[in-house]
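Meet our chain:
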Amino acid sequence: MAITVDHAAVGTVLTQAEYEAASGAAHSVSGEVAQATQAALEAETNEDTYAPPDLLKHHPGIAKMWGTVNQIGTQNLDASYNVDGIVDQGTGLTDFTIGDDFSSVNYATSVNSPQHRNSIVAVKTAAVLSVRIRDSNDVAIDSDETSVVAWGTQV
């Protein structure tokens, strides 16, 4: 349904009844919108609330940590979120120390090293992800770009 606007009345504030009459649809407008709780976000509760920026990280679909590292030479953490640091564990091996730990080892991970065939999470604890990079011959190799992402419930 189209709503015709009288240009002479532009800037006029309609009451809810006037809006409903013009649009043909009923809309509920009342007071303030409540803030969602962490528990509601984690449970994906369907309620009329808003998710504040500081609680968005608790939603199940949001990455809880990620990082990109250059393993060549002295390893360097190029960019990250919720990573306290990295440890070079040898050729093709990097440990990512997670800032806010996961509640268990039951969380999802993804590792990518664009130029190498085999990039995996070798070991994972609630606090550390160990990434291993191999070439097409399954030989350990350092990568100039290795990325890791993890999703799950945190402590």
In short: The radius of gyration is 25 Å. The chain has two helices and ten strands. The CA atoms of residues 83 and 98 lie 5 Å apart. Strands lie at 34-35, 49-50, 65-70, 76-81, 83-88, 93-98, 108-112, 118-124, 128-134, 146-151.
